[in-house]
Amino acid sequence: TGETDTYDSKRPETNEPRGTGERVLRSFVIPKHRLPEIDEKLLVIQTEDHPWDYRNFDGHIEQGYGKGPVKLLFCGEVEIRVFRPTKIEFLYDEMLYNLFYVRPMKKWMITQKRDITAILRKIREKNAK
Asked: Which helix (H) or strand (E) holds 114?
């Protein structure tokens, strides 16, 4: 809490463009500034959806918009496996990630479900023959 409560309380005050249309960025903040290792769970904070043009943003956010540095962890399209109000599962860079909402905490978490790199590599090699 603490740090995230301050962030959450400022979000409704900002007048930021909302993402609409077919290509929208579903946006989350990861306070640890990294993706999780296998079986590790990290806190994530859901922000409002952003316009597609924001996809490469990396820099500093000013006071009133969440203030602080923004480090782009990855940029690119992901393969969505599950998309429900409390669960988003996606494949990115040969790794399977799971975003899930923890109701008692009222927070989102992210975990890397399993390392599937070797499995995918074998499938590709088999299909290439």
From this structure: strand 107-114
Domain ranges of the chain: 3-128
Rounded to two decimals, the pTM is: 0.63
Scanning the structure block, which residue is given the tokens 């500093």?
A: 60
Whole-angstrom CA distances from 106 to 1, 3, 54, 56, 75 are 11, 15, 26, 28, 27
Query: CB count, 10 Å around CB of 87?
Result: 13
DSSP helix/strand/coil, 4 = helix
Dihedral pair phi/psi, residue 15, rounded to 5° = -110, 70
- C-alpha 11: how far from chain center: 17
Q: What type of residue sits at position 92?
A: Y
List, for residues 96-113, the tens digit of each pLDDT value: 888 888 888 888 999 987
